[in-house]
Design a protein that fits this description.
elongated; alpha+beta; nine-stranded antiparallel β-sheet
Length: 573
């Protein structure tokens, strides 16, 4: 999608300091209350609350606005549910606990696979598989309320998918009564549990389910109002003012847009308009998502997200019904997009997300990705999120490091500590950003404090795209700041991971390299203040598969007074 013709489109000039948000984590009392609430699901009292007379019909069937993947649906016709590098055999799968990832379990429990199955063929062909799996879920998960299947966010998603794909699972008299009865019990469970869902996207999913149930099940007017109020609160907490999700995860941004797009179809089914707060959230969420797309239409890789294909982005955005241009400056979400000519650069210009909203986040502050038209040039190593849950744990952990991103690394350390339990520790607390746009191009000047406390240096990065996008100039500075506990020299490395289709060769003087894009242009890379080495690296592709790539590395030692390294990229035909 075009960035639009104006050079200052959506960009506010000037300097801004972005501080890490205080981790508004659950207090001990909140965590204990949430755990006790989940334990209460097992009691007779909770089951008594779910009793009642339930209508054995739905008001209508909404349309799923997002197309499923025929490839995955076809695999189901062949006997397997395949998703992000994992699979289960339909013949033996019964939704009971097994050795699969938590993400795959959530996918199976949410019934999101109904979307792909429905795309694989006519209803008469695919319905038997949907009915078989639904019957097994009812037998093993539908009667007993437990967290693995009855978590609020899972029920929210399940209601959305059961409603949109009801013809696949309630086409027989044998299943219609049990499914609708369980759907109504799930909605009643969700009425009391949605606010207990984890903050961020899970709570949005839970409240979306409450709202959808109010629109789907007869007599749901009060439930619909209750759901709209809860969803409005959840969205206010989950989205920054510029529309980016608080986890800073592109794959969660896609997911949020998809959930709201589905809910919008529930309103249309009833001849109603999406309420203003929900429509506003959807309108705000699409441009930041588009802002992270590269020249090939696919996502750049941030917070462990794979470079998801442009087709998937297009399907979700089209399903949302929102038309917008890529957001070039999302100050709150923290990503900056520089675009000129055919050149696109995305920069992480904010502290990492707080652990409350994000697991397995990355230490990627001031990293960049770059594309030339439909060809990627500079990338981050990426991750399997949204593409592959089956990466080796050690590799997945390494992909979270600063060294796995195209930025400066000091003393072979992460700019923010990366913990094995998925959380982040001390490091970047604030990023200072100044951006300017003029007729000559775009310039962004950024600085973070992730290395100040440990090593006494602030990292400053300046990037400028010239007119027409044919030249990119950069500077990386290490500036003395704070107290230095040691006066010895510290090593640094500036890394530029290169896309798989880029052929690289060193120049004779050791201060540059030639980057030839397959079927694309030649870019000349030059560095001043350090020698350029070519090393091996790894990249996770759009299906989550590791690919061998190369990287440019400018390395050296930092004297006590600091250092400045200049680099440039010049495009030639």
């Amino acid at each position: 999608m075009s960035d639009g013709p104006g050079f200052d489109d959506g960009v506010e000039p000037g300097r801004r300091l972005i501080r890490v948000e205080h981790d508004r984590s659950h207090s001990l009392a909140e965590r204990v209350a949430g755990r006790l609430h989940a334990l209460s699901w097992r009691t007779p009292v909770h089951n008594f609350r779910l009793r009642g007379r339930y209508p054995l019909k739905l008001l209508d069937v909404p349309v799923d606005p997002i197309e499923g993947l025929v490839r995955l649906g076809g695999a189901m016709l062949d006997g397997e549910i395949v998703w992000q590098g994992e699979s289960v055999a339909i013949e033996t799968f019964d939704f009971r606990p097994r050795t699969i990832s938590a993400a795959f379990n959530d996918h199976l429990q949410s019934f999101a696979w109904l979307r792909d199955l429905s795309a694989a063929g006519p209803r008469l062909r695919v319905a038997p598989i949907a009915e078989l799996l639904t019957r097994r879920w009812l037998e093993n998960c539908g009667r007993q309320v437990h967290e693995a299947a009855w978590r609020p966010d899972l029920w929210g998603r399940r209601i959305l998918f059961w409603g949109c794909h009801a013809p696949l699972i309630v086409s027989t008299d044998e299943l219609r009564g049990p499914v609708l009865n369980t759907l109504s019990r799930g909605a009643k469970h969700l009425d009391r549990s949605a606010e207990k869902a984890a903050p961020g996207l899970p709570r949005v999913a839970a409240w979306a389910g409450v709202t959808a149930a109010g629109l789907l099940i007869p007599g749901g007017e009060l439930r619909q109002l209750h759901g709209e109020q809860g969803l409005t609160r959840a969205l206010e907490a989950a989205l920054h003012p510029d529309g980016g999700i608080v986890s800073r995860s592109p794959v969660e941004q896609i997911d949020l847009v998809g959930l709201l797009a589905m809910l919008r179809k529930y309103y249309e089914m009833r001849g109603q308009r999406l309420p203003a707060p929900l429509l506003d959230a959807l309108n705000r969420a699409v441009p930041p998502l588009l802002g992270l797309t590269m020249g090939d239409g696919g996502l750049s890789s941030w917070q462990g997200t794979a470079p998801i294909d442009g087709g998937r982005i297009d399907a979700v955005v089209a399903g949302s019904g929102i038309r917008g241009r890529p957001l070039r400056q999302s100050r709150d979400w923290g990503y900056q997009r520089l675009a000129n000519g055919h050149t696109r650069i995305i920069v992480d210009a904010a502290p990492p997300p707080v652990s409350r909203f994000a697991r397995n986040a990355c230490a990627s502050t001031l990293a960049l990705e770059m594309s030339d038209g439909p060809w990627r040039l500079i990338v981050n190593c990426g991750g399997g999120r949204g593409a592959n849950n089956a990466l080796h744990p050690e590799l997945a952990q390494a992909l979270r490091s600063t060294a796995a991103h195209s930025t400066l690394v000091l003393a072979d350390s992460n700019s923010t500590a990366v913990h094995d339990d998925g959380t982040l520790g001390k490091g970047v607390t604030e990023v200072e950003v100044e951006r300017r746009e003029d007729m000559q191009g775009s310039r962004i000047d950024m600085r973070h404090d992730g290395y100040v406390r440990r090593f006494g240096f602030a990292h400053r990065r300046v990037i400028q795209i010239g007119q027409g996008g044919r030249q990119v100039k950069g500077e990386d500075h290490l500036l003395p700041s704070g107290r230095r506990s040691k006066q010895t020299e510290t090593s640094y490395a500036i890394r530029f991971h290169l896309a798989p289709d880029v052929d690289v060769s060193a120049t004779a003087d050791g201060s540059g390299a030639l980057l030839r894009i397959a079927e694309g242009a030649l870019w000349r890379f030059r560095a001043s203040g350090g020698e350029v080495a070519i090393e091996d690296s790894i990249w996770i592709d759009s299906r989550g598969r590791p690919q061998s790539i190369r990287q440019l590395v400018i390395a050296g030692s930092v004297p006590a007074e600091g250092i400045e390294i200049g680099w440039s990229l010049l495009r030639s035909e």
